[in-house]
Hints:
The protein is α+β, with helices and mostly antiparallel strands. The protein contains 16 helices and 31 strands. Strand 27 (about 665-670) and strand 28 form a beta hairpin. It is elongated, with a radius of gyration of 32 Å.
Amino acid sequence: MTRILSLSCLALLVLTRLQAQDAPKWKGKFEQLDQLLPTPNEYRSGSGAPGPKYWQQKADYVINVELNDDNQSVTGNETITYTNNSPDALKYLWLQLDQNKLADGNMTQKTKGGTIKDSVDTRTAAANLDLYEFDGGFKIKSVKDAAGKTLPHMINYTMMRIDLPQALAPGQKFTFSIDWGYNINDGIRFRERTQFEYFPEDGNYSYVIAQWYPRMCVYDDYEGWQNKQFLGQGEFALTFGDYKVKITVPADHIVGATGQLKNADAVLSKAQLERWQKAKTTFDKPVIIATQDEAVQREKTKVKEKKTWEFHAENVRDFAFATSRKFIWDAQAVKIGNYTPLAMSFYPKEGNPLWEKESTNAVKNALEVYSRMTIDYPYPVAISVHAAAQGMEYPMICFNYGRPAKDGTYSAAVRKGMVGVVVHEVGHNFFPMIINNDERQTTWMDEGVNTFVQLVTEIERYPDIDFDRGKPAALVPYMKGDPGNMRPLMVNSEQVIQFGAEQYAKAGTGLFMLRETIMGRELFDRAFKEYAQRWAFKHPKPADFFRTLEDASAVDLDWFWRGWFYSTDVVDQSIEQVKWFKMRKDEVDPEKKNVKTRPGDLAQNEEKYQSFSSGAEPFSLTNTDPRMYGEFRSQIDDKAVMAKLQDKNIYEVSLRNKGGMVMPVVIEWTYKDGSKEIERLPAEIWRTNETKVTKVFVKDKEVTGIVLDPQKELTDINTQDNVFPKTQTPSKFEEFKKKTK
Length: 741
């Protein structure tokens, strides 16, 4: 009996044969991640949401700090009230001493590699060879309990352990104080997240101050104390709390900081105070609170008197500030749901006219788009501070680069960089300042996620600028690089070699592809917002992110997490061959004299399947043998089925996954009449064969060309084998390459 039921059956037979041939290459790319993710429990549920007994610690700070503008140092004292919300009794507490990264004999210095090269500039050589003399690191003067009794403590590089008089029981609080000081590093010598910049033209300094006080480590349900050493690349894991901070600086300084300014009438002039109040109700453009003329005058006078600025911040994970007599200050109100935060910028005259034009507007744009994508921005201010060669974030305040030439002119590239870094760093208010992941262990959860929302903001608000980081095509050069220099996203940040390309760009690109190609915007945006709402002001882990996006969308993404986050596989799809068929006009052949067998046997010469030049292969269908119906009493209308295929163009397309990373298949069909069609197939098309798939398509019109990933949505590293016919003339092939470049 000739067993030809339909073209789909024929394709199934071919696919089954290919599966058998490629079975040894199966890598389990569609296996669930259950064995890799932590077991759900009462703290973190299987849905990705916080569990019914989720808990986190709290650390409240009262800090007094003074900045010495004569010798570039800070001294301070802090009182910390630590609340143990865990179910564990704690015998000791761990604090971070990040300034110790610059202490003599620090671990970063000891573990840093290097080479000697001829004709290296002296600044680079001095930094690489540690030739600068600098007395860095915290000087801890005392650690005492609330009664003033000295507490035993031990310093291990960038971590300090304080032993408690007795174990801190669940639900209890412990209050203690630390006196400390340190010297501020010169940013031109030590490129750190905190620094000063000296301006020789007027003899003044600008300070951006961060990691400036001993900070509580996170203690959580996932790993206990997060006390991994700070080596410089991996950033921070921090505990939420309330802050009351008094900052003493020269009286002619302007200070920007985390939190609300509580004593504006004591530190601002009458005119500045009036402008500040006006800014709170001005939504259309920034109000200049401290003008450039005022800043220039302050640069000249350099008073020796002091003032103390007081700021309060609630439910934040950190505190940073910036101060200088050079600062210009502007602010604008932004409407975000039921909140009206002030978008503000602080910058020296060296930042103008670029900063006055762009900075606060970029803050506003970021707050509006990020709030739509996540949660309404809840804090009272969002500040952008201009600092040379900086791009760093803290709650409500960030430090950003982008400086015009001395004559005030700036290129499109300088504007692009400045706008991009402001949007990115302001965006960090959401990731990780609110949705508070552990940056030191999983950098992509803040840098990569933030890079993605940054790109969404840039595309929406800056259509005149060609931003590309986070777009699939921009990642291809990295994906084509040396696999030995690649690391999976799911590694500790200190092990990453290509930090920006992976933890920022690759992670951001992955989310961009999820939104634009794999899930679609509606499904993705709903799931992404659910994640943000679930984990706002909490400590999410990767499993919480993975599980929430699937839980809120009904899309199984384990194949994507496995490939994109846990491996270094790349995307490289190709069209192996295309077979074109048309059904014979006399489709019914009762005598079965002209029936062919499987489509794969219709021609022995495989070269003919590299183009359409040989025309369509004819094939026939036969009436269904009644025995094929088995127990069914009814039968299909064979002629009606055959009629549906009459005059159709049928294409059997063989695809190959050569890069290892399974991805959806995006096909562009070009028809003889010049029209085009985009067809999208889910990644699950590879589920039974991870390396090769053969699929049949029925088309009304004759096809003249086929292209995979025509809009470069999938980071395919080799687009030359994405096109069919294979025998295109050079001019057509060059046209295709130019179109997809």
